[in-house]
Specification:
Layout (H helix, E strand, L loop, with lengths): L1 H32 L4 H4 L41 E4 L2 E4 L2 E4 L5 H17 L5 E7 L2 H4 L14 H11 L5 E2 L3 H5 L16 H15 L11 E7 L2 H5 L4 H5 L2 E6 L7 E5 L5 E4 L24 E5 L8 E6 L7 H4 L5 E6 L8 H8 L3 E7 L6 H10 L1
Parallel strand pairs: 4-5, 4-13, 11-12, 11-13
Antiparallel strand pairs: 1-2, 2-3, 6-7, 8-9, 8-10, 10-12
Helix pairs in contact: 3-5, 3-12
Length: about 375
């Protein structure tokens, strides 16, 4: 009996020892399996993603990641002086503003004319579009911007841009001019922009084209005082405007060799200076210092540029102050005022003359005129 009981006790002890060994082995396996492999430690395998992490979301930047600085706000302009409305003109003190309403149907026809030109010239010429804001979209006092007399011209510009084909080089000007809105970028007594306003547009064009613009200091400048323009006339020759006439500033091209040949409405061809001395012009005519004014057709040849580069500017009168800045970048600059040009087809003209760039420079008031855009459609 005692021997049998001894054997049973020894058997139980062996069983307990075996069980203990198994338990120790399981524990060791669990511990070892929880360690990182050498590959993980070296960075070749990513750490496990915590269960509460959404792997589809981007990594949140650290708290010390610098934020993008806020954009500089545009300088504000306050209302100063009495206010009066004359039909489509609104006067504040000695400054006039054209009232503006965006017309979507006409804007669509404008975009169609531009797109049609770009499609017809695909692979042959690049098409650029510069819709020019009016002073009532840039220098109008902030309290009146976008009210019932003045539609939002920045919004109008964006709508026009959205209608253009991807092949069109769209050059928005609202922001470029708003950054300088307290400078002399528009006349007070006339509806046009100044040559300074046109210069900032030229810089925007150069940015889109990928060329380096000249600095203002590169040019020779003339000034013609005593300018009283269309707003002065439409305000019944307001006394405040008469007491503070505008000054027409004009920057000559860097080249001194280029000359302009234009064809007038009677079909005569005349040679003229790109910037003409307007000192003795009548008070309302001094804006005509630029490219001989509103002529149906003009051509400017610059012998200092010998690469045979050519562009054509399709414009109304706002383009007059813009064209002189292009002269230093092309061998030939053609200028077509679509309101008066006798040609039938802009695209045929471009092909026949080997033009590389077509530049539409058209103000927002023209782009809402069904009559004017009808004239543009006639040649496109």
């Amino acid at each position: 009996m005692n021997r049998r009981h001894g054997r049973r006790r020894r058997t139980k002890l062996w069983m307990l020892a075996a069980a203990a060994i198994v338990i120790v082995a399981v524990v060791l396996i669990a511990v070892l399996s929880g360690k990182k492999s050498p590959a993980t430690d070296s960075g070749d395998v990513s750490d496990p993603v915590p269960a509460d992490t959404n792997v589809d979301q981007p990594v949140t930047p650290a708290d010390d990641t610098p934020e993008e600085p806020p954009k500089e706000p545009y300088q504000t302009i306050a209302i100063t002086g009495d206010q009066e409305q004359y039909d489509a003109l609104y006067r504040i003190g000695d400054t006039g503003f054209e009232m503006y309403t965006y017309v979507d149907g006409v804007a669509q026809k404008y975009a169609e004319a531009v797109n049609r030109t770009a499609d017809a010239l695909a692979g042959k010429a690049s098409v650029y579009v510069l819709p020019v804001p009016l002073s009532s979209g840039i220098t109008l006092p902030d309290a009146l911007l976008g009210n019932n007399l003045f539609d939002d011209q920045a919004a109008a510009e964006k709508k026009i841009g959205a209608m253009l084909n991807a092949s069109v080089h769209y050059v928005p000007l609202n922001d470029a001019l708003m950054r300088h809105r307290t400078e002399y970028v528009y006349f007070r007594t006339d509806h046009h922009w100044t040559a300074l306003g046109a210069y900032y547009a030229y810089r925007a064009f150069c940015g889109e084209k990928g060329i380096t613009p000249h600095e203002l200091r590169d040019y020779t400048k003339d000034e013609f005082t005593g300018f009283l323009g269309s707003f002065y006339r439409d305000s019944n020759q307001n006394d405040q405007m008469a007491a503070h006439p505008d000054v027409v500033e004009a920057w000559h091209p860097v080249t001194t060799e280029a000359m302009l040949d234009f064809t007038d409405t009677a079909g005569n061809t005349l040679r003229w200076k790109i910037i003409y001395d307007a000192t003795d012009y009548e008070a309302g005519m001094k804006y005509n210092t630029f490219i001989a004014g509103d002529q149906p057709f003009a051509v400017i040849n610059n012998p200092d540029v010998t690469d045979q580069s050519k562009c054509v500017v399709v414009k109304e009168s706002f383009g007059n102050a813009f064209v002189p800045y292009l002269v230093d970048h092309y061998s030939t600059v053609y200028v077509i005022d679509y309101r008066y040009w006798g040609g039938d087809s802009l695209t045929d003209f471009v092909r026949e003359n080997g033009v590389q760039d077509v530049v539409f420079v058209n103000n927002l008031s023209a782009i809402r005129s069904s009559y004017l855009i009808g004239k543009l459609q006639d040649i496109t």
